[in-house]
């Protein structure tokens, strides 16, 4: 059991889901009042350098972070299509969120999602079923893959897309029109799908911090 705003926590955790153990890294700064759960895209893992860069910036602003593997190594290797099963991934994320909520044992703790690529669709799918999710950020996401639940999502949602990622811009505009809560579509000029150009990832991290600060009401 962890109590926020008391002790710093930095551990590799094993999360029980579907009779399996998903490995993750949970880091909670001493003054954290909220935790952001990361949901990586297909073919990636909790070691995604881009997600880890954003997580590091969030921790600098007193957000806790949980980066975990959506699939076991065996699942990822055995079935390529599992990576794109949004319902399965969304359900996994729901179970992980409930595990974390129970671990934190803090009614005042607010949770948010940061999803990338197909992981953004899983995050939106899970958020539609979880009232404890108070804010969502999507980076280069495919929210259109969660089209059937978009109208049910009321959590404030920031959709970040690179201006060079033309197909994904269209997917995000489709989703933006259907989201019901506070929302913003942010297009980062000169960035592609992976935000490798210049300081594009720095901009993603800065905008994520601003969004979560706004809606999770973390004191800085």
From TrEMBL:
GO molecular function terms noted in the UniProt entry: hydrolase activity
Domain Dienelactone hydrolase: 25-202
Matches recorded under InterPro entries: AB_hydrolase_fold, Dienelactn_hydro
Keyword entries, A-Z: Hydrolase
Keyword Hydrolase applies: yes
The name this protein goes by in its record: Alpha/beta hydrolase family protein
Organism: Chitinophaga eiseniae
């Amino acid at each position: 059991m962890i109590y926020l705003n008391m002790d710093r926590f930095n551990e590799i955790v094993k999360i029980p889901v579907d009779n399996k153990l998903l490995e993750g890294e949970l880091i909670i700064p001493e003054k954290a009042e909220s935790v952001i759960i990361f949901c990586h895209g297909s073919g990636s893992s909790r070691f995604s350098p881009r997600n880890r860069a954003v997580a590091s910036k969030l921790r600098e602003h007193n957000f806790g972070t949980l980066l975990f593997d959506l699939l076991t190594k065996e699942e990822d290797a055995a079935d390529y299509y599992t990576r794109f099963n949004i319902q399965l991934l969304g359900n996994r994320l729901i179970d992980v969120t409930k595990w974390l909520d129970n671990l934190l044992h803090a009614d005042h703790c607010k949770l948010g999602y940061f999803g990338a690529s197909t992981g953004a669709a899983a995050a939106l799918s899970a958020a539609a079923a979880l009232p404890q999710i108070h804010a969502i950020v999507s980076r280069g996401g495919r929210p259109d893959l969660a089209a059937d639940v978009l109208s049910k999502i009321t959590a404030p949602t920031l959709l970040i897309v690179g201006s060079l990622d033309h197909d994904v811009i269209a997917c995000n505009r489709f989703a933006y029109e259907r989201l019901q809560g506070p929302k913003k579509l942010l297009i980062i000029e000169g960035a592609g799908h992976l935000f490798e150009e210049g300081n594009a990832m720095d901009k993603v991290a800065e905008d994520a911090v601003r969004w979560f600060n706004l809606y999770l009401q973390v004191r800085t």
